[in-house]
Amino acid sequence: MTRNDQGRVVLSGLEKSVEIHWPSGKTLPATTSSLQWTSDPTRLLAEQLVRIGCYFNQSLFGNRIRPYIVTPQRVRGLAGYFAPQRYQTRDGSAVFDEIGLNIEIFHSLTLIELFAVIVHELTHSLQFHFGHYSPGGYHNLQFAEWAERIGLYTSHTGAPGGRRTGVRMGHFIVPDGAFARASAKLIAEGGDIFVVDRWAVQRTMRPTHEHRQESKPSSNARFTCLSCPMSGEPTHAS
After folding, report:
1. Would you say residue 80 lies in a domain?
2. Domain-embedded: residue 62
């Protein structure tokens, strides 16, 4: 995210940069977070994820997303996944969906790209509970339409012009769509995920002559939705 003197927010890292005109008189922080050192990073990360989920639930989904559990994952080739009713309480009185996020790619995504992965999975949750959910990792036309309504356009290539439905399905962010506007506001207010996988960062570094240069991550692998390779359950992964 960059800022200029005309009060415009430019969200980079997209197929097409998204430029949003910020309301007059508003000021954006120099960074996305003003975090200080914390002795409880687990709690801080949980609070950030809860804040992000609640914010998009309210701003994009009308508070209809059912309770879910976020888990950090390390699954090669995935950005995240949605697993319906994956958890239950010990006494069996309640069940919860799971949203898994691949922490190994956090460093290669901008905040808005990471938010898009979360919102993609939240859209799966909404469809599972209130729509016509397709098992086996298939993204049907209803999912494509619901995602487009909130500002994520499905595409099997992750870019404009791709097929909108299927198992291997990506997305791109609609310029000036509801998701892009909501994300700009959240980032401006300090919304953040403050950690990345340090080992994953080191693996992307390659020695080049007298210095080390970070290799460019693959762009078409970030948002590809697949059938979950971990089980035969009807899990959606992106």
Report:
1. yes
2. yes
Q: Which range scores top for mean pLDDT: 36-40, 83-87, 165-169? A: 83-87
pLDDT tens sequence across 42-78: 999 999 999 999 999 999 999 999 999 999 999 887 8
Q: If you search the block for the tokens 């998204």, which residue do you land on?
A: 18
226 is a domain residue: yes
Backbone torsions φ then ψ of 125, nearest 5 degrees: -60, -45
If one counts the domains in the chain, the total is 1
Domain coverage including residue 60: 39-205+214-237
Angle at 18 between CA 123 and CA 57, to 5 degrees: 25
Q: Using an 8 Å Cβ cutoff, are 194 and 48 in contact?
A: yes
Q: What is the mean pLDDT of residues 110-118?
A: 96
What's residue 227's pLDDT?
32
Q: What distances in angstroms separate CA 187 from CA 100, 111, 160, 161, one per listed residue?
A: 22, 8, 25, 29
Q: Is residue 122 part of a domain?
A: yes
